[in-house]
Amino acid sequence: MAKVLVYGSGGRDHCLADKYADSQHVDKVFFMPGNPGVAHTPKGKRGLIERVAPDAADDFEAVARFCREQAVDLVDIGSENPLSRGLVDVLNAHGIATVGPQQEFARIESDRAFTDFLLTAAGVPKPAYRVFNDPDKARRYVRNIGYQVVVKANGLAAGKGALVCDDAAAAEAAVDAIMVERRFGDAGRRVVVEERKYGSEISFFAYLDGRHVMPLRMFCQDYKPAFDPEDHETIERFGGNLNTGGTGCYCPHRLVGDALVNRIVREIVNPTVEVIYNRLGWPYKGVLYFGLNLDDDNALSVFEINVRHGDPEFEVLARKLSSDLFEIGMAVWEGRLDRVRQVWNARHYVDVIAMEGRSKASRGWNPGYPKRYGKGHAITGLDRLERGLAVYFAGVDEHDERSLVTYGGRVLHLVAGGDTLEQARRTAYANIEKLAFVDHRQNGANCMRYRRTIGL
Fold first, then answer.
1. Taking the complete model, does pTM exceed 0.85, yes or no?
2. Would 365 be classed as within a structural domain?
């Protein structure tokens, strides 16, 4: 039986560990640095998933030593930061099998300007764009461009670096927030100003093994705005409906069908992979995520590419996928994706994310995610959830007195399935209402919040 290490700590990484633990070939999944939530799950309690060595996770040589000592068969890196810092390169130098691209190849996500170059070289349709190093030139450009834009931090920004603008004033403010205020740190040294597109968003994924490509013939819809569109008062208080790393997801997307999947593969995936393999000469092994727009004229375009599974997209795709993830991961490493058969079940899945809302601070108030949020709020109600639901933990910690507590802005994913999308929605919302984040500074009030329109 095999051992797998999933490197990461968020909800997507917990979901990866959970899916590997379902494999008939795997008897142990190590989760590094992991999070304390996994110990509160059935697989964590049985020791099938084990959080290990969180203090050593930043030392990639120590990660490699752990893998050798424990005879780990495969490492799957779920998050973009360790990929861009070269974890795969270190592990591969020690002969350790991995799912994830090498550091150089992670530029596809960590450098948006390079991504735009790649897509242009592939002849893939994408919004018009310009790259700027100077905030004054960027401001002049957005003031005179004449159409709505999205202003993006050029580097990694944890899925939050794209600011969608309704007018020139908002675009100038976005340039200032990214380049002058450095809201996203060093990722804001350069910005990409991109034409704003309208239509249906599609999250599409493909596995690469250095020679072959296996597009997943299933896709989903995620929700990036922080709030429901009808929540006008909160949106105004936050200064706009801010984009986040995702507030929920459903699968399958209402547009899923063989004809559209074939179009995406033909028009987007294959030309991009052709440039990666043949023009760049990269033996890329891992996942590519394509953020797509399908407009009212039925035209496809790409607004982003990432080098890992989406979050929250993977949380629903993993439930929909009946194929063995360990078999897919080993096929990625061994270059035989052409022999893998995809199997998808017939159910619908909805992921609603429980987030930190408004809470009492030591002085004043925390407005809540995606702005400043509180921590240390006891999570209650987990023991009241229906059987068959999946709970993936993200921003959690443990407290001596309060047990499992909140630690991040996006705290946990609650994924429900059903024979129809509406049934999955009803189950998800009926259960998330059983949870609470107890605000100890506000007489035990519930400071959890979530979007109510996921799946609509």
1. yes
2. yes
